């Protein structure tokens, strides 16, 4: 019965719920969106939004929006300085409070993303996944997900992907709302924002075995 109900929710109810919730959130949070945009423009400069192509449902590429959290500081050769240098105190605040993620509400409204699902990662990771890890793209990527409430950037890539696939196999209305409520709690507690060895998160370098060739 649970699997049947989960299938109905996934096929017919999840997207309408995403649309309604994201629209309500944008309307309620519009003053905060405007304030953060002004602060980003003042403290970090232009552009206010960070835009990057990410793989979504079935690995279809879309443009994801976030508030900018880093400067464009470069070395004498024109290369960008390390993240740890370009990530300012203000940028860290935006990340620790997840305010930088708010523009993704527009991605959800458009249908690129969902409120809950595996986080959209970098396009260059696609050929590095093994068969199991690629299954994370069987669901629309989310603003938050099972991996985020289980440790976010503080857990290993392998654990994160396993949790993503676990979510894909068990999508349900009650499961999504549990993740939504846990996400709100995590934001206030500010847990698992960064890994222990990097300013943001170490890049995924692939698997030693079973790598998918591009």
From TrEMBL:
<dbReference type="InterPro" id="IPR003362">
    <property type="entry name" value="Bact_transf"/>
</dbReference>
<keyword id="KW-1133">Transmembrane helix</keyword>
<feature type="transmembrane region" description="Helical">
    <location>
        <begin position="20"/>
        <end position="40"/>
    </location>
</feature>
<dbReference type="Pfam" id="PF02397">
    <property type="entry name" value="Bac_transf"/>
</dbReference>
<keyword id="KW-0808">Transferase</keyword>
<keyword id="KW-0472">Membrane</keyword>
<protein>
    <submittedName>
        <fullName>Sugar transferase</fullName>
    </submittedName>
</protein>
<comment type="similarity">
    <text>Belongs to the bacterial sugar transferase family.</text>
</comment>
<dbReference type="GO" id="GO:0016740">
    <property type="term" value="F:transferase activity"/>
</dbReference>
<feature type="domain" description="Bacterial sugar transferase">
    <location>
        <begin position="14"/>
        <end position="188"/>
    </location>
</feature>
<keyword id="KW-0812">Transmembrane</keyword>
């Amino acid at each position: 019965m649970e699997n049947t109900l989960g299938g109905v929710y996934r096929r017919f109810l999840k997207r309408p719920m995403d649309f309604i919730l994201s629209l309500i959130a944008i309307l309620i949070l519009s003053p905060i969106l405007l304030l953060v945009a002004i602060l980003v423009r003042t403290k970090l400069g232009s552009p206010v939004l960070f835009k990057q192509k990410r793989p979504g449902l079935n690995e279809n590429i879309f443009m994801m929006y976030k508030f900018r959290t880093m400067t464009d500081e470069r070395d004498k050769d024109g290369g960008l300085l390390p993240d740890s240098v370009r990530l300012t105190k203000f940028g860290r605040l935006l990340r620790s409070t997840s305010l930088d993620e708010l523009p993704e509400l527009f991605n959800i409204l458009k249908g690129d993303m969902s409120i809950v699902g595996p986080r959209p990662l970098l396009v260059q990771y696609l050929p590095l996944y093994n068969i199991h890890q690629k299954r994370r793209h069987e669901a629309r990527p989310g603003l938050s997900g099972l991996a985020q409430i289980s440790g976010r950037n503080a857990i290993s890539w392998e654990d994160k992907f396993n949790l993503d696939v676990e979510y894909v196999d068990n999508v349900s209305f009650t499961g999504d709302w549990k993740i939504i409520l846990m996400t709100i709690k995590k934001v206030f507690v500010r847990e698992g924002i960064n890994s222990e060895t990097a300013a943001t998160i170490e890049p995924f370098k692939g698997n030693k075995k079973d790598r998918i060739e591009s």
